[in-house]
Amino acid sequence: MVKKRRRIAMLYPFSALLARMKYITRWSLMHSTRAESLSEHTCDTALLAHLLCLIAKHYTGTPCRPEVVAVAALYHDAPEIITGDMPTPVKYHSPALRDAYKALETESVRSMAALLPAELAAELTPCMDGSVLTAEEHRLLKAADRLSALIKCTEEQRSGNHEFDAALTQQRAALLAMHCPEADWFLEHCLPCYTQNLDELTKP
């Protein structure tokens, strides 16, 4: 009787590597009252990006694809699994550092895509490098990314942590400088709610 040779499945560690986003801590150079993981930031950014797209759809008329932007947001910081979360003051300290980090991100995307079958890599690479997005959609995703940071700063300040005072001012200024009407709508109608307590948030 001839024994059947056991088939060895090809393994692709892409998803397992993505799952490690929860071990990467953001704001690593600053004292935080509560640590924020890259996984948490990614989820928050995706939710905010989707909402900004809906604001665009219903109020400002900016053409966009909410579902595509939300998916791109889920992968927008995936390269940091390899590079780590480099603090913004370091990343943008000089043009040379900025360009070097950009090249590192590009290589990180390539390395992560290599952990998938070619067909899946071709689908996911545009989400990781942002090339799936139009200019308007990229602006909305960037605004959502900044909003996530602004909300973190707001929460830290509300907890009595003045370590984030300057960062809050910088993030708000950077967001306003984008001249993004969808983000402006969020700042007016949604951001103030982040300073409310649970009773205020759920009050009829």
Automatic annotation (TrEMBL):
<protein>
    <submittedName>
        <fullName>5'-deoxynucleotidase</fullName>
    </submittedName>
</protein>
<dbReference type="InterPro" id="IPR003607">
    <property type="entry name" value="HD/PDEase_dom"/>
</dbReference>
<dbReference type="Pfam" id="PF12917">
    <property type="entry name" value="YfbR-like"/>
</dbReference>
<feature type="domain" description="HD/PDEase">
    <location>
        <begin position="34"/>
        <end position="159"/>
    </location>
</feature>
